[in-house]
Amino acid sequence: MGGARAAAGRVSVSPVVWRWGGVDASEDGEHLCLMHRQADARVFVRGGRLVSGSGYENAAPKARRELARVGAIVRLRQRGRYFVHAAGAVDPQGRAWLLAGDSGSGKSTLAYSLSRSGWTILGDDGVLIELAGSEVRACAWHAPLEVSSTLASAFPELRAHVARARPNDPRRRVSMNVPLASRARVVALVFVERAECHAITTLGPLAALGALVRQSPWVIIDDAYACPHLDALRRAAALPSFRLEHTPAELHTVARILMEALP
What we know:
Blueprint: E1 16-20, E2 23-28, E3 31-36, E4 41-46, E5 49-52, H1 61-78, E6 82-84, E7 86-90, E8 96-100, H2 107-116, E9 120-123, E10 127-132, E11 135-139, E12 145-148, E13 173-176, E14 183-194, E15 199-203, H3 205-214, H4 226-237, E16 241-246, H5 254-261
Parallel strand pairs: 8-14, 14-16
Antiparallel strand pairs: 1-2, 2-3, 3-4, 4-5, 6-10, 7-8, 7-9, 10-11, 11-14, 12-13, 15-16
């Protein structure tokens, strides 16, 4: 956590202006205050830096991580990089695909499957997008790829890692080493859903933009960065976009499915 620490004790802030998970955001003059509701811990975004506030040092590691994650998303947004709740994978031709979806939709599982097919990974639960001239680029969000050890029947190598599954995690996820990428030009968006039957359908730009805003909700923050954030999402949504309904049967064919989806 960079910068000087805020004064100890309670800090008076304005009412909550937006919320993400367990973190509330309030205006503190020219700065943004992020408060973890459960831990009653605060950090501030000041001058492009995160500054620890009351309760932070004594908060549980999970709460500190959540505050730091949201703080990093806000700081990067101020620099023209926008977080999307998506997995990112780079195909053998060097093109990035974003696999976006709600928690539990299968992003990490599909990303891991793609890594086994020779793709490199930008992230499994988040990527950053930025505009570079006429291109939309995806940049890595550095976090370990976690996959459910209950999928050992599909991915036998997971059996050797069952003991490392996170305690109290109903999905019994383990961190796996996969080939990583740092950035690449985005060529397609894929909105993933678990289903009983496999289907892949094309989405138009308006439907894709609506789905993308759901996975990058910070765009609705009413500040100086809202318009460029929306423009980045709009440019991304103009790329070829698909809805992928997947079942366990597609775990070993998803790379082929995606490659065949583009003209």
